[in-house]
Amino acid sequence: MTRRFAPADLPDAIPVFPLPGALLLPRARLPLNIFEPRYLAMLDDTLKTEHRLIGMVQPMAEAMGDRGGDRPGPPRLQRIGCAGRVTSLSETEDGRYLIALTGVSRFRVEGEIDGFTPYRRVRPLWADFTADLEGPEEDRGFDRTAFLALLKRYFDASQLASDWSSLQDAPVEMLINSLSIMCPFSVEEKQALLETPCLSDRRATLMALLRFAIASSGDESKMQ
Q1: Burial, 195: exposed, middle or buried (Cβ in 10 Å; 0-12, 13-18, 19+)?
Q2: CB distance 94 to 112 below 8 Å
Q3: How far is CA 145 from CA 57, 139, 152, 176, 201, in A?
């Protein structure tokens, strides 16, 4: 059983994994393949903590002026990320870690922490997202039949396959969050899904992205 966190359990500092396109949401699971030495060290250090939390944060798209010309440095981070607890781990023969994070709570990045770790750490602000700790959300306006019909058109247009029986029976929050994580949206679109205030807004945003992808495929008949 996954540990339940109270606001007082959330730490004042967490390591972050700035991986473009990798989205984590509360109560959803994100599999990761860890192989870079700095992130292997991050995981080793995280496993020594009681909370075992890692923050997933999208790096910002870098423009020339973002860092002041050609001055080197790490990419800036988006202001909102999601922390997940390491809930499964296996080590491969070649020294990689295959892990899964289970989303706990979103956070705002107050600032980065200078130090001697090879990975980045931030000071998270949790106060705006205490509802993430309260258990599964409901979406009373969810129409599964209409949603799955749109999703099928998207999969057909994108030439993707899925297990439809599992989609038909999945709890609403799991369905919306899992699709938000797995669909190949852009970094900006993933960030928009992360920042939605509630599940119904995330579902509306997801459906808008699906419709846009169908229209962009060039097959207007799939929009009918």
Answers
A1: middle
A2: no
A3: 33, 14, 11, 14, 18
